[in-house]
Structure formats: C-alpha cells, structure tokens
Amino acid sequence: MSQHRVIVVGGGLAGLSASVRIAEAGLPVDLFSLVPVKRSHSVCAQGGINACNEVARQQGFSEYEHFDETIYGGDFLADQHPVLEMANWAPKIIDLLDRMGVPFNRTSEGNRDLRLFGGSLFKRTHFAGATTGQQLIYALDEQVRRYEAEGKVNKYEFWEFLGPIIHEGRAVGIVAQDMRTMQIRSFRADAVVMATGGCGLVYGKSTMSVMCTGAAAARCFRAGAWYGNPEMIQVHPTAIPGADKLRLMSESARGEGGRVWVPKKAKDPRDPKQIPESERWYFLEEKYPAYGNIVPRDIATREIFDVCVNMGLGVGGENQVYLDLTHRDPDYLTRKLGGILEIYEKFVGDDPRFTPMKIFPAVHYSMGGLWTTYTKGSYNPGTALPKHKSGSPAPLDAKVGLGMQLGAPNNSMTNIPGLYAFGEVNFAYHGANRLGANALLSCIFDGLFCGVSVFNYVKNEAPGKAPAEGLASGAFDESVSRETARMKSLVDSASAGASDPATNPYAIGKELGDEMTAACTVVRTETRVKQCLTKIAELKDRYAKVKLSDAAGWTNQSFSYARAVGDMLAVAEAIALGSLERRESRGAHYRSDYPDRNDAEFMKTSLAKHEAGKTTLEFVPIDASLVAPTARTYGKKDTKKPEMAAAAS
Amino acid sequence: MISTLAPTGTAPASGMTEASRRRAMAKANRVVTFRIKRCDGPGKASYWQDFKVTVPKNANVISCLQQIAANPVTADGKPSTPVVWDSGCLEEVCGACTMVINGKVRQSCSCLIDDYAPNEGDVMTLEPMSKFPVVRDLWVDRSRLFHNLKRVQAWVPIDGTYNLGAGPKETPASQATHYVLSTCMSCGCCLEACPQFNEIPDQGSKEANEAAWNSAFIGAHAISQARLFNAHETGKELKEERLDVLMGTGGVNDCGNAQNCVKVCPKHIPLTESIAVIGRQVTFHAIAKFFRG
User: Fold this and answer.
1) Mean pLDDT across chain A, nearest whole number?
2) Which of A5, A112, A115, A297 is catalytic?
3) Which of A101, A111, A128 minimises the CB distance to B232?
4) Which chain A residue lies closest to B267 (C-alpha atoms)?
5) ipTM (interface predicted TM)
6) Domain map of chain B by residue range?
7) Ranges of each domain in chain A
8) Given 3-state DSSP classes, what are the helix, strand and coil percentages for chain B, each rounded to the nearest 5?
9) What's the confidence (pLDDT) of residue A405?
10) How distant, in Å, are the alpha carbons of B195, B246, B282 from that of B250?
11) Residue A515 in contact with residue A528, Cβ under 8 Å?
12) Domain B18-136, CATH 3.10.20.30 — does that match?
C-alpha cells in the first residue's frame, strides 16, 4: 500500500519542529541532515526567545507591540501579515517548549524569568542560561527521537542534500548523498521542507557553524526556486575574532547591562580598569538615550564600525571596542550568562567578569533566503495604522489567524509547489534586520504553524492526491545520473596534473570570503560591489577548473566542500547583485552613496532568479497594509566625536 | 557548577587568568608538528602521518586542520590527502569535534595550540576516539551514543504540540540542577574515558548493532540523562521504564566506579553524582518490584 510522505531537509529548530508537527499529524517524515541533528547550528543561539508574557503585558506590552517592533526593527521590508501571526503565536510556543522540559531560568516564585533584548523597552525575552538555542534544540531533538523510536520519523544523518527533484512543476523528492559511503540516491516525497539555515560561510569567517554554506538553498535556487532579499545579511555587533571562526558574544550581555565603550584618547595604552569614567566614551548610550546599548544590531554594528574605522578610536588602534560587564555582580553574571562568559574565557583567556571583553562585529545571520508565499489572515484594516506607541494599548487582540490563515497549504511555500522553506532559509519575518531573540521564534513558528500547511498540501492539494511513490522513475534516475557525473568530474580532477593555488577549492573559498567581507558587509558602495561581481566572475572561471587533492571514494570531505564552493559562488552573486541594485540604505544594507531609505522605489522585496545559468534580480512589492512606515531612528541624537579624541588624532 | 569560571572569591582582580598568562608566553608563527593517526576507512589499518603547520597566536586545532586540508603535504614533503574530521559549531556547544589530543579526550575547537605547544618544534598528537568505530581518520561513528538515549527514553512524554498551557513551575535551585544536566552535548568524552565502556565492532546491520549495544554498558552519558528526565514533573511518567532498563544488563551496576567520566566532561556535569542518584533509584525500584511481586 503506497503512502504519502514528507521529506524535511535540515535538523535545526525549524526542521525538528516541522518533523514533530508533521509526524504527529500522521504523515511519515524522512529527516535529512549533514550532522546528527542534535549538533545542528541552532545550538549556537545564546540569548533567548521573544514572546509577550504576563509581566510585560501588565506593563503595557502586547503581541501587537512585538509585531510592531519586529516590523520597525526590520526597517519595513517584511511582508507584514506573517510577522503578526508569528508574534501572536509566540506565547504558545514558549508554553510548549516549557512542557517539553526546556530549563528556562526561573524567578524566585518559580515563574519563567525574562531579560531585556535589542529593539525593545520591555523584558520579553525568555532564556535558559546563555545557551538557549542549545536547550531548545535538545528539547525538540528529544521529541523527534521519541517519534523515531515509534517509527514515525526516519533519520538520515550525515546525508547531504544535492537538489530537489521537480516533476511536472512540483517537488516530488530529493537527491542526496551519504557522506560516508558516498552513495548517491533519490528519495521520493509528496512535499519537501527546506530547513537548512543561513549562508555565513560565503563570507569565509562568520559566527556560523561549518555546515552553514548556503549550498542547500543555492541548489534549490539553481533548480528554479526564487531567492528573496539576498543582500540582507546581518552583521552582529559583538563577536570574538578567531582564526577559524568569529565566535558570537550574545546580545544578552548587553541585555543584562553590558556597556560598549572606547577610550576617548586614541590608542590609549592603559589597562581598561585604569581608565576613569570621564575618559571613556559610551558612544551608544550617548547617541541613543532611550535604547542605549540595546539598539538593534545593524545600528550598533555601524556605530562600532564608525568609531573604529572612521574615527580611529578602536581599542589599542585596532578594530575592537570594549564590551564591559565588570560593574555587575560576578555571581549574577555566572547565573545569567555563564555559557557565553565561559566561551570568552576559553578562547581568549580573560575572565569577562573582571576585565572588559574586546569585541568586533561579525557576519551572523541571513535575513534573506528562499522566497516564500502565504495566505493572509482575517485582520485587514482599510488603512495601515501609524507606528504603535510603545506601551500603549494594543489595537487588536492576539487571536490565531489574524495574520496568516492557519493550515493554508501555501504558507511558507516557495514558488515551486510542494517545496517549502522554514527557518533561517525562509526570507520572511525579519525584513532588512532581525531583532535579537526573534530567530529561534521564527524557526519554531515555521515548523509548528506551517507544518500544518505541509500536511494539508499533501492531503488535499498534491496533484491527483496520488503518492509520489507511484510516479515513473524518469526524473529520479535522471537526477541521480546528473549528480553522479558531477561527482566523477570533481573527484577525477584529483589525479589530473599538479596542484595549483588558482584551482584549489580552499583558496577559492577563502578569496570569496575575503572579497564578500570587504565588499558586502557594513558599508557598501556601487564601485566596490561592482568590483566584487567581477571578482566573483573570476572565481567562477577558476572554479570551472577546480582541482581536488583527494580522489577517495569513501568519506571524501574535500570533495563535499569543493562541490559546496560552486553553490556558495551562486549565493554570493545573488548577495552582490542585491547589494548593487538596492540603491538605498535600509536595515543591514547600508550604501554610503545612497545613505537614505527610499520607500517609493525600494520598499520592495529584491527577488533573485536563476534561469539558464544566469542570475537576474527584480523588485516586487511587499504587503505593508498593517503598519505605515516611519523613519527608523531609535531616538538618535547627534553627537560629536569626543574632544580628547579630536585632540589626540 | 554551571561554569568553569573561577569562584568569585579567588579570581584575580585584573581578570587575567593562568591561561592568559601562559598564552601570552607562546611564540607567534612557530612551526608545530601535528602527528595524526589516520585510517582510510573501516577495516583498514591505521597509520601515523606528520604535518608541519605554522601556527599564529590564538590558533586552535581546527584552524590547523583547515591549513592542512588546504595544502596536504606531509612533514617530509610528500603530497597527501586532507585529514578527515568531524566538526560543527567550533565553540564547544555541539560536541562534534571530539578527539584524543596528546592522549586526552576533548573538543578540538576549544583546544588552543598556545596551551599545548607554545614552543617552536613542539609536537601535538591527534587520534580518533577509540571507543567508537572509525569512519575515516579522526571521524568516528557515534550512533551508539544516540541509540542509548532511546534505551532510557530520554524525553518528556508530552501530550502533543497543541496549545495546552504552560509546563510545571520550578524553583531556581531545581532549574540550576537540571540546566547543568541538560547542557550535555552527547560528545562522548565520558565514554572514551570509561574503563567499562568498550568498543563494539560493526555487526553488519543496524539491528545487529542495536542488539549488541543493548546488552553492553550504557555509560554515564545516558545515565545522567535518565536522572534529568526522572526528575522532571512530566518526565517522571517513564521513570519505572527507565529504571527497568538501568537495572538490567549493561545498566548502572556495570559502572566500575573509576570516576574518569566526571574528570573529562567538558561541561562539568556531575556525572558520578548522577550515577549515584540512579544507583539509589534502581535499588528502591528493585525492592519495590520485589514486594509487588
């Protein structure tokens, strides 16, 4: 008896919550992951997860305000309905995680504790120490293991997704490879959920895990899926520089009182503890009196960049500023932030409870990703409301279905029927800048809310309602032969001629990362981005002749990496193209040659399409019918470079 | 304790720790030899290969392995292949990059070369964990470790994902205890160090492997997770079933009390305490079962 089934690619928070929801509804799930799912990149999330809660509510916060903050934080680039539904669902998600056993920090009465986070004046962030992502993914991993033991979820760990299989215009399966045996085979399914995270490795070093190459998304993109807002890449203000990666220093450090400063005197050689208050410049607090150190990430990043690069005030003359927690009680810090302070101490050697940390911005999150659609919910006011006044009563309640219609089969579906994108790889929700502690929320929301959509699509809409299992084998065999041929040509290169840095996949990957970091991060210009596109073209030419150093037919990691470099080049091109064509500044995308936001032309999604080997970009309107755009200032005051610094430089 | 950070009473006011002083002494751009135990695949013989790596300050094992991968030439100048290893987060929260470094099991991402090989010409040895079958080079197959979580049903049996309100309240003290147990990243250090936990060669099929694992010592990792879920208000529901497993062959009584597990745990989880707690629970469970008949 043939049966419908669903493939989920990626075992982070989005993939696991989707698996739980879909398996619970009664469809068997095949879950694919590059790593044992418990080791997915979601473990790196530190600070927490946002949701309206009873304390904040009684202080004047609401789900509506959470929605409004997210839209404003994202600089009015997100389609607004999905964001409203996510904010409305957030409290239910926290309750569910609580029932699953997540050890959320507690108040003395035993309630869930809360902390302050970027872009809000209310404590609305739930947390488990400073390893919230790890604790959330463990809870979901445990539930998936339970379903696995019951035979409802089948895991394929250490399997790499190579592409969707599209038959008569809809996704009917995937082609994948066992990373150990190198076997390539096809898998059939009636719907495919991509939950494959971000693309930080395109930038070489970032805060992301080694598997976050963006290759899975690129493989869908190259198969015809559209990519939305590729240029929207979040650079997190506070990370620890490292040789292999840039390690995140959570925003929760600032939420718990951490202060960012530099000595007013350039290259001040003194130990930071010896520098008196009057000779320190707390530039965020001075410029943003209301939000201070917890301004959104894009703003904090640009200010730090400006202070270090343009004013030359970085600590010791280098690109770094102090993140200072030493005024807080050390035991309090251990209780609330133990996990991240330990990371700093392990990798740098200093104890941040007693000495200010030295940090600098790093590529952190991809707001852009595979483009998806949705069905609007029942809340459709005639005219968009003005920006919500923080702490004032909400204009509407938090019912389910106001923002998105629960169960509509197209929620979070890409332009290819049956192919969904959940979590970070979904471009929705965060617009031009993600607020801290909204990522975990959007991942789980997609899995739980849109998981129902996948079920309904498979049961009611999948063409003919006949399981993919019964289709002729043509499309499946074809994809396997294509991938097998591609592998052969790459692996065979290992035995052809001498090695050459020009065709070394690691060298190409590194040059790509360096170029993208220089051209497409904090400050972008027409000239520099054009130069970057030329460089990408050069790297593509070199990649066409790429040469491996390992011909092994067993667990060949360098082959796998080399293949991913080709996909990273495709993502990089889309990012650069978006950075070039979006001739305005919005959220994370700052163009010094177009420093203002231009709503008339660019309050639109940039949509990258890949056809016949060529990437094009167009702008399509967004639905901003709920909240009218306003200037996004966070109450900035004009401030000058401190006098001492001016004198010293 | 949650953290390795020194107790506040004894921490130096400057914030400079012993580690930072040691690291300050290490020479920049010195050449370090990496002696790596390699293996081309299951059933193949292992062999050692040396690689010379120029090490900048603050480098870790991962960044050195990345250098080797980009240019795999041995110390005696022969072209080789990139060393294969498992990794993920690179900040010691995922557990993937565990290996045996200079004879001691640990994560390679948090292993700074300045701590281990501060001088020109120093040697570091890297070996795969010995208690799990090698896939290739430093990469081992730890499926058994995840299977053992299934043996003890390490989950909370919730009623499903519908909105049914909040979970049970919890005191901060109880949260602190549970949080530490819940930071276990299934890296396997405790099993590598345990004299009672031994490698089981591949039995040829998933079913045969699982049967072999089911009768062998389960190890501190899963015992500690059983403790975590037995203490949870809802997780308790499966307590008897967990104890049935831990009472039987390969259960808590196979622990030889070597106490190596707790010494190597990178997250400082009180594993011996967990073993003692489960030991007591198993005893009471056995007595209760005896009287119930």
Assistant:
1) 95
2) A297
3) A101
4) A339
5) 0.95
6) 18-136, 142-292
7) 6-232+367-470, 236-365+634-648, 474-619
8) 40, 15, 45
9) 98
10) 13, 7, 13
11) no
12) yes
Write the CATH number of the domain with boundaries A6-232+367-470. Answer: 3.50.50.60
Q: Which fold has domain A474-619?
A: Methane Monooxygenase Hydroxylase; Chain G, domain 1 (1.20.58)
B178 touches chain A (CB under 8 A): yes
Q: Express each pLDDT in B12-58 by its tens digit.
A: 445 567 777 778 888 889 999 999 999 999 999 999 999 999 999 88
B172 vs A106: CB contact, 8 Å cut-off?
A: yes
> Is residue A175 a contact partner of residue A169, using CB atoms and an 8 Å limit?
no
Chain A residue numbers touching B106 (CB-CB < 8 A): none
Give the total residue count for chain A: 649
Q: Do B5 and A142 touch (CB under 8 A)?
A: no
- Which of A347, A400, A514, A546 is best to mutate for the B interface (most B CBs within 10 A)? A347
Q: Do A104 and B229 touch (CB under 8 A)?
A: no
pTM recorded for the entire structure? 0.96
Q: In angstroms, rounded to a whole number, what is the distance separating the alpha carbons of residues A361 and A236? A: 5
Residue of A nearest to B168 (CA): A99
Residue A247 bears catalytic tag: no
Best CA proximity match to A234, nearest among A415, A361, A53: A361
Q: What chain B residue is nearest to A140 in terms of C-alpha separation? A: B155
Place of tokens 């129902």: A452
CATH of A236-365+634-648, one of 3.50.30.60, 3.90.700.10, 3.40.630.10, 3.90.226.10: 3.90.700.10
CA–CA distance from B282 to each of A590, B149, B177, B235, B289 (Å)? 62, 18, 20, 17, 10
Is the domain defined by B142-292 classed in CATH 3.90.1150.10?
no
Distance from the B92 Cα atom to the nearest Cα atom in chain A, whole angstroms: 8
Q: Give pLDDT, residue A416.
A: 98
| Cα separation, A453 vs A446, whole angstroms | 10
Residues 217-276 of chain B with CB under 8 A from chain A are 229, 232, 234-235
B118: its two tokens: 């501060």
Q: What are phi and psi of A485, to 5 degrees?
A: -65, -40
Mutate to test the interface with A, among B10, B179, B229 (most CBs of A within 10 A): B179
Which DSSP letter does residue A426 get? Answer: B
